[in-house]
Amino acid sequence: MSMSGSGSGSSDNEPSAKKLKFLMSESELELESESELESENSDNESLTKKPKIVQDPITDELAHLEATEEAALKAIIWNRCSYILELCKKLSNQLYHRVLDRAAMLVCLIYDKDDLYRMGHSRIVYEQRSKFWDELEQDLEQFPNVRGPLYEACKWIVCKKVDHDRYSLLNENDVAALLSMYRSCPDRKPYLDFDDKEVVKDFDDKEVVKSAFDDDIQEAIRKAKLFPRLTVDQYTCLLIEMARGESQEWLDLLLTKAVETIDIASYGLDASSIEDLMGIFTDCSAYEELYRDIEFNLLSILICKKVMVQREAQQSVMPFNLLFTIEFLEGPSSLGDFDSSKVAEYRCRDEEAASSVDIWDLIKVAELRRKAEGSRFITRDHFLWAFDQGGCGLRTAFKDELASRMAAEGHPPYHIYRTALTLANAEQQPVQAEHLAFAVVFGKIFDFSEEEVKEMQEDFQSFKTALRMRCVSPPNDWFMVSSEERLKSGLWDDF
C-alpha cells in the first residue's frame, strides 16, 4: 500500500544451512565439497574456500526501494527549500532546524511511496515497465490487427491481468502511460536504455548538501515519519482539491499548520544581519520578509505536489479517451467493416459527449481514491466511492448485484470503460454517467457479440428505472466538515 510503511526484518528470516545449499549454484556446491574434503584430510588446517551466500532478490529490491524513497524525500526538501535552509542556518541554528522539521513533515504528509519511487527513478519500476512492454509486444502478435493495437492491448490487459509477482510496482498511471506510447509509437520501446545508476546520485552530486545538510535532512525525515499520516479520507480530500484546483482550503490549512509555530521574533535575530543576507530593499521589516520567504519555500512543496497530481489525474483518463476514440470515431467495426460514411455522425456525438465532463471527472475521482488507498489499479470500489460522493449511492442501491463482484481486480478497469462505451454507442447517445454506472455494477467482459449488446440494452432500461427508484442522495457530512476538523491540529503537536 502506497501510504503505509514496511516493517524491518528479523533473525527468523535468515536462511537455514539447507536453504543456503539449495540457493547455491553447482559450482559453489563443488567448492563446498572440496573444502569439506580438505578439512577431513587435515584437522589443523582451516577451510580455505567458503561458499558464497546468495542474496535474496526480494530483500535487494526492498532495500533499493527504501533508498529510492529516502533519496527522493531528501531531494524534494533540498530542491524546494535550499535557499531558505542555507539562509536560516547562517542566522540561527534553532530556526534552521525548526524550518527543516516543518519542511520534512510537510513532504512526508503529502508524498506517498508511489510518488517517491517514480521521482527517484527507481530501476525496479523502469525494469517492470520495460518487461511489461516486451510482453505486450510479444503477445499481441497473435491477435488479428482488426481494431488497431490499442484495442487489443486493452483487451489483453483485462483478460490476462497484470501479474503481481512480476509487476508488483506497476500501477494505473504506468499502464496508462504505456498505452499512450503504444498508441503513438508502437514500434518504439520507451525504456530501451535505462541507465541504472545509484538512486542517490542526483542528491549526492551537490557536495554542499552531502557535507553540511544531508545528516540534518535525514534526521528531520526520520522524526517526521514517526508522526501520524493523513487518513485515507483526508488524503483523498487533499488530492481532489489539488486535481480540481477549485479551492485552496486544504493547501492553505497545511501551509498555515507548517508555519504557525515558526516565531521568528523568538530567536533573537539581528535585523541588520537579516537585511544584509537577504539584500532587503523594501519597506517591509526584515522579520516580515524572512517570514514571507520561509512561507514561500514551504508553499513551493505544495505547489510541486499539486502539479504532479493534476498531471497524473489527467493521465489516468487517457485509456478511456483512447477507447472512446475507437468506439465513437473509428466506428464499431469489430469485423473490420468500418463505414467511413458514419465518421461525421460519430464526430457529432463526440462533440455532444465532450460537453459532459461527468465521466472524466468520475474517473479522476476514482483514480485519486485509488492513490489515497495505495491500490495499484482503479477498482469497482473506487468508482462506487466516486459515485457515492456525487450523491448517487450505487453501493447501497445495488448491493445484491455487487456482492459477487467486489473482489480485488489485478488489472485496470478497461472492461468497465468498454461496457459503458459500447452501451452508449448502441443507444446512439453521448456517453453519460449512467452508462458508466451500469458498467460499474454489471460490467464483466471486454468484447460483446451483437446479441449480448441487445441484451445489455434491455438490462440498461431496467437499470435506469431502478436507478431513479433506489438511489438516494446520502448526506456528504464528511465533506461538509471544515478542514480544521478534518485535519486535527494534534497531527502537528509536539513536533
Fold and architecture overview:
- The chain has 495 residues and is mostly helical.
- Helix content is 65%, strand content 0%.
- It is elongated.
- The two termini are 26 Å apart.
- The N terminus is likely disordered.
Poorly predicted runs of 5 or more residues: 1-55, 193-209, 332-337, 474-481
Tally of individual helices = 25
Which structural class best describes the helix and strand composition?
mainly alpha
What share of residues is helical?
55-70%
Strand count, sense and closure of the main sheet?
Answer: none
In what range is the share of β-strand residues?
A: under 5%
Question: Over all CA atoms, what is the radius of gyration?
Answer: 28 Å
| Distance from first to last alpha carbon | 26 Å
In N-to-C order, the SSE pattern is HHHHHHHHHHHHHHHHHHHHHHHHH
* Overall geometry: elongated
Mean pLDDT comes to 75
DSSP E strands, number: 0
What is the strand and helix layout of this fold?
Blueprint (H helix, E strand, L loop, with lengths): L16 H7 L2 H16 L15 H35 L1 H18 L2 H7 L3 H18 L8 H12 L11 H13 L16 H4 L2 H19 L6 H13 L4 H11 L11 H8 L7 H31 L1 H11 L14 H12 L3 H16 L6 H10 L4 H4 L1 H4 L11 H13 L6 H10 L7 H21 L6 H4 L2 H4 L9
Helix pairs in contact: 3-4, 3-5, 3-10, 3-14, 4-10, 4-12, 4-14, 8-14, 11-14, 11-17, 12-14, 14-17, 15-21, 17-18, 21-22
